[in-house]
């Protein structure tokens, strides 16, 4: 039984807090909705979520947590009980959440030591329709996580959180490289990438359409932010992509038109990403090479099995 509904937010700890805040609330196009002594909450204008990114000032760069929604407090309680019975290490028991939008939820460690939060009854934020030519994020699209043991992580998310496999990327020399995982008919809310260590791979933000996505891509390029890869269009998920590095070296993506599946009839594909049309159907992106791939491995995450302080 699937108890998760959608991805809510991704929380980052960053040493260069002011620069990061300027990037996300300026160039990237999110809106700062709350700030409190070295912690800020950033919303996407088109999203009912109170925030999609949280930034926290810290001496160490880390992924603080990934947050998912559940349909009801009863589902939150059920999930907590199932995780406890399954031997998963809980950080907190279900209770009131003291962040913008409030709600009822709890936190736990995944198999790699990442902090995951699940919540329900979070207030809906007043949001608006993003207009034509407005090149700011509509919502958070998905998150991709690096794991040193791709299949162990995949199986954990399937067993404990009800994720299902949509597609897999493989390489003739390297084997399986990425699993795209879903909790709805959206092709993926999360993907797991094979990496040398546990870390954030990238956070993806959805724009209104192709034109807005291209305008946003151009704006971020003109800002001087480092473009890693794109613009192009993936085969798995059929979504557009342009990847950039934020000032702290985290990879962030602009995307649009991520595929919606018929879950009853869908069968996962295994795509060979050594074929250029798999990584980019359009053929417009710079080549995916080892240097581009290495940037997305990110730094070793210092937050494994260490709960964030807030």
TrEMBL record:
Keywords carried by this UniProt record: Metal-binding
Biological processes, Gene Ontology terms: L-methylmalonyl-CoA metabolic process
VOC domain location: 6-121, 139-257
GO function terms (MF aspect): metal ion binding; methylmalonyl-CoA epimerase activity
Family matches, as Pfam families: Glyoxalase
InterPro entries on file: Glyas_Bleomycin-R_OHBP_Dase (IPR029068), Glyas_Fos-R_dOase_dom (IPR004360), MMCE/EMCE_epimerase (IPR051785), VOC_core (IPR037523)
Entry superkingdom: Bacteria
PANTHER family: METHYLMALONYL-COA EPIMERASE (PTHR43048), METHYLMALONYL-COA EPIMERASE, MITOCHONDRIAL (PTHR43048:SF3)
Descriptive protein name: Oxidoreductase
């Amino acid at each position: 039984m699937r108890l998760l509904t959608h991805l809510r937010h991704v929380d980052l700890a960053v040493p260069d807090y002011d620069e990061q805040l300027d990037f996300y609330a300026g160039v990237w196009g999110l809106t700062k909705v709350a700030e409190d002594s070295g912690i800020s909450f950033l919303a996407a204008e088109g999203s009912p979520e109170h925030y999609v990114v949280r930034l926290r000032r810290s001496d160490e760069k880390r992924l603080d947590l990934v947050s998912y929604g559940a349909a009801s407090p009863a589902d939150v309680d059920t999930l907590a009980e199932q995780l406890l019975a399954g031997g998963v290490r809980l950080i907190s028991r279900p209770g009131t959440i003291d962040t913008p939008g409030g709600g009822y939820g709890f936190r736990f460690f995944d198999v790699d030591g990442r902090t995951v939060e699940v919540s329900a009854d979070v207030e809906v934020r007043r949001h608006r329709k993003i207009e034509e030519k407005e090149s700011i994020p509509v919502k958070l699209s998905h998150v991709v996580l690096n794991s040193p043991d791709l299949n162990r992580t995949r199986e954990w998310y399937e067993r404990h959180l009800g994720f299902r496999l949509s597609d897999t990327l493989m390489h003739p020399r390297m084997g399986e490289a990425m699993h795209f995982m879903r909790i709805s008919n959206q092709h993926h809310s999360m993907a797991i990438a094979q990496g040398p260590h546990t870390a954030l791979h990238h956070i993806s933000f959805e724009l209104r359409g192709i034109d807005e996505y291209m305008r946003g891509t151009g704006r971020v390029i003109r800002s001087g932010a480092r473009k890693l890869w794109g613009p192009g269009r993936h085969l798995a998920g059929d979504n557009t992509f342009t990847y950039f590095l934020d000032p702290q070296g985290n990879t962030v993506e602009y995307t649009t038109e991520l595929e919606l599946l018929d879950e009853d009839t869908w069968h996962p594909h295994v795509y060979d990403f050594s074929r250029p049309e798999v990584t980019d159907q359009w053929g417009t992106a710079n080549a995916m090479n080892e240097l581009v791939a290495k940037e997305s491995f990110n730094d070793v995450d210092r937050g494994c099995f260490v709960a964030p302080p807030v």
